[in-house]
Amino acid sequence: MKARSRLARIPQRLLLVAVVTGCAVLAACTKNTDADTSARESTPAGSGAAFPKGQYASLDSLPDWGGVWVGDGPTTNEQPQRKGKYLEAYEEQMAMREKGIPIPNPFSNCLPRGMPSMMALGVYPIEFLITPGRVTVLLETWMQWRFIYTDGREHPEDLDPSYSGHSIGHWEGDTLVVDTIGIKEDTIIAGRGSRQQAHGPNMRVIERIHLDPENPDTLIDEMTITDPDALAEPFKQTLTFKRSREMQLAEFVCAENDRNPVDASGQSGYTIK
Amino acid sequence: MFTRIKLLLAAGMLIAWSGSFAHHSFAMFDMKKEVTVKGTVSEFAWTNPHAFLHVVVANPAGGSKEWQLELASPNNLKRRGWKSTSLKPGDVVTVVFNPLRDGTPGGSFVSATLADGTVLLSGVKPQE
User: Which residue in A126, A222, B89, B115 is a FRET match for A77, CA 20 to 30 A apart?
Assistant: First the structure.
């Protein structure tokens, strides 16, 4: 009897310890939650995560873009109508190519392509993740991504240029219409050439992305690029992608074994180990 | 027969993947020149942005020379039927490559023929 009451008391003590510990943990958690909340509150409205609490039912009516998509690259080798210093730089580069002189490009070979030519790379697959308020494009090359916000937000006013730029989009039926600005000036518009004088700070890319009505395993990206500084007229190109339901994106870490250093003159070297 | 099928498969893939992309210009290689050497694999690096094959070639007059050859990325090689174990140190191979213009013992890999007759093709075509 005595032994039993002692045993009976142990769980009570444990419970007390558990409650005290639990409260301490809870207090710590509550404190952390407060900290997280204040961090979230410091993020301006409409610039954080898209619909973080769900709205998944809104996705049911969207087209099936499942699987991964392998780009065919641009359908033509057509080049944009450049102007000003951008035209001069491009002509200079093409003249060098004609003479067999490699075009200097004093940037690391491990820099990602960025918009818009990141969408025009054949061979390497891309994948679309469609979630409430956002379409995410994952690109295998250089492990790039694009966030296309479809929650109705506008572009931020104080935009820091980035390789993918800032994208907002909306669905017009089964077509995703995407507007991208804030693209770093050293991303190549189309074809080859140096990243120097590639385009201006106000380049805008409008895309209409949809399945081919004739073949739902083909995705079409109708792209219109405008640039008040670098282009004399809008540059239009159509990119196509083939669906694979089996392929998966693979890792691509360029720094793993990059043996092609770029020297001061902008030429790629070849390192012998 | 099996080897021939493999070769045809590889050739088909070569056509399918021609015009593929590399992370640098091919201007450093003499793409009009092909060098063929027979040697022993000393390293096969299954790495991004390019896989590399090192082949040691014995010099009849004594000594040896190691060639360090660049291939496509593992992602693309895998999709063309390659494996990280397709080539192993010690394998005797006949390799074809486009050499570096500056004479450095390196180049852009074209193909490798293994002792059993298996042919492995890179399929990379230059952008420039």
Answer: A126
What is the CB-side half-sphere exposure of residue A86 using CA atoms within 13 A? 22
CA dihedral A39, A40, A43, A47 (to 10 degrees): 150
C-alpha A115/C-alpha B36 separation (Å) is: 40
The residue that leads in pLDDT, A194 or A62, is A62
User: Which residues in A95-130 are b (16+ Cβ under 10 Å) and which e?
Assistant: eeeeeeebbbbeeebbbbbbbbbbbbbbbbbbbbeb
8 A C-beta contact, residue B23 and residue A109: yes
Are A121 and B21 a contacting pair at CB < 8 A?
Answer: yes
CA within 13 Å, CB half, A17: 6
ipTM for this prediction: 0.75
Nearest-5° angle of CA A93, CA B15, CA A247?
A: 95
Question: β-strand A166-172 against A144-149: which pairing, if any?
Answer: parallel
Predicted TM-score (pTM) of the model is 0.79
Span A217-243, pLDDT tens digits: 999 999 999 999 999 999 999 999 999
Q: Read off the pLDDT of residues B27-37 as tens digits, 9 standing for 90 and up.
A: 889 999 999 99
Quick check: B47 and A256 CB within 8 A?
yes
Residue from A147, A178, A141, A176 nearest A162 by CA = A147
Tell which residue, B46, B97, B96, B52, has the closest CA to residue B70: B52
